[in-house]
Amino acid sequence: MILRLDDIKKYFPVRHGFLQRKMEYVKAVDGVSLAIKRGEIFGLVGESGSGKSTLGYTVVGIHRSTAGKIIFKGEDLATRQHMDVRAISRKLQIVFQDPGSSLNPKRTIRQTLELPLKVHRLGTRRERLGKLRELLQKVELPEEYLHNYPRALSGGQRQRIAIARALAVEPEFIVLDEPTSALDVSVQGKVVRLLLSLAKEHDLTYLFITHDLSLMRNVASRVAIMYLGKLCEVAPTSEFFKNPLHPYTKMLLSSIPVVSEEEESLKPERSVPKGEIPSPVNRPSGCGFRTRCPLAMDICAQEEPRRTLVNEEHEVHCHLFNNSRIKGDYDWND
Ligand SMILES: Nc1ncnc2c1ncn2[C@@H]1O[C@H](COP(=O)(O)OP(=O)(O)OP(=O)(O)O)[C@@H](O)[C@H]1O
Ligand SMILES: [Mg+2]
Fold it and tell me: Is residue 225 a contact partner of residue 232, using CB atoms and an 8 Å limit?
């Protein structure tokens, strides 16, 4: 196990009302527990606003968690001393969704890539230059690019630079926050293939955030589905597509485009959710999905569903399974 999240919460305070006196909290991440194995590509899927980026930012330390524990290689990140934090933070890196805004337009590629090496005091000037050349090779860009500014690069090339920047400090774990969704469809596949080969070559572990389930199917070994700051279901990717259990998972799966009749026949019956995703400031009582769930029962408004283990690797957070009321599949038309 390389990373364990133990009941992680991230609340953002927001003020509103007359003279902004009323304080409320956006519960962007509200009690997430997960364990990620070394070397795996762990997919995190959810609609916009479900808290995926907030969770990723909290893992790498951009946000400080409101509650919960982040255990990286057996060490609790919250209780480490200042100096240790610098050493550990090197091991946890992030690639953001939009390389246009994540690279500083006023810095050359060389300055951008050299900065993390300087911050972590790695190598002499000459050694650093050698390292930068090696990094560009790894992301399949010519070394002349070191003297360019980001604006001279295409979106795909910029994202390669962002990947090189994450790799510069030799991390073990990288959060990929929708790394291809801002790119042209024609280059998305190439960037994904690069990420996969880098993972193998450098023994990296990824938390791969996306809302694209078809992409997940091709890259992730396990997938977690997130809704309104909480997990709905976690399962190995193959199991996930064969035996989805949570009504929300089924809803997501039923809406992915497929290429063959065979795939179509494997999809859960199409279900259209009722209404919009509620605000994380006013989360519905009980289960957060109940206001859109076609199978909601009375208990769903009263109690939060517990985590139920369907088998060793498959967990679901839904009242339909809490008391094993229904085993296996259920009928959407009930
Ligand atoms: N710094 C912040 N201050 C206040 N609210 C925030 C902040 N960052 C995120 N939020 C809120 O937290 C919730 C989760 O946001 P987040 O960006 O994590 O979602 P996401 O799943 O990554 O969505 P997307 O798919 O659009 O990237 C949203 O309601 C968002 O408005
Ligand atoms: Mg996001």
Answer: yes
Supply the range of the domain harboring residue 334: 246-334
8 alpha-carbon distance from chain centroid: 14
Please indicate whether residue 263 or residue 216 has the higher confidence score (pLDDT).
216
pLDDT in tens, 271-281: 666 677 888 88
Q: What is the pLDDT of residues 275-323, one digit of tens each?
A: 778 888 888 999 999 999 999 999 999 999 999 999 899 999 999 997 6
- Does residue 328 lie in a domain region? yes
Q: Is residue 26 part of a domain?
A: no
Domain assignment of residue 203, yes or no: no
CA of 17 to the centre of ligand 2 (A): 27
Atom of ligand 1 nearest to the CA of 63: 1
Tell whether 320 is covered by a domain.
yes
CA of 69 to the centre of ligand 1 (A): 20
81 lines ligand 1 (CB under 6 A): no
**Ligand 1: residue whose CA is nearest its atom 10:** 28
Q: Nearest ligand, CA of residue 25?
A: 1
For residue 269, the model assigns a pLDDT of 63
pTM of the complete model beyond 0.85: yes
For the chain, how many structural domains are there in total?
A: 1
Phi-psi region of 103 (alpha: psi -120 to 50; beta: other; left: phi over 0): beta
- Cα–ligand 2 centroid distance for 256 (angstroms): 19
49 lines ligand 1 (CB under 6 A): yes
Question: Do the beta carbons of residue 211 and residue 47 sit within 8 Å?
Answer: yes
Is the beta carbon of 229 within 6 A of some atom in ligand 1? no
Helices (H), 183-273: 185-202, 213-219, 237-242, 247-254, 261-266
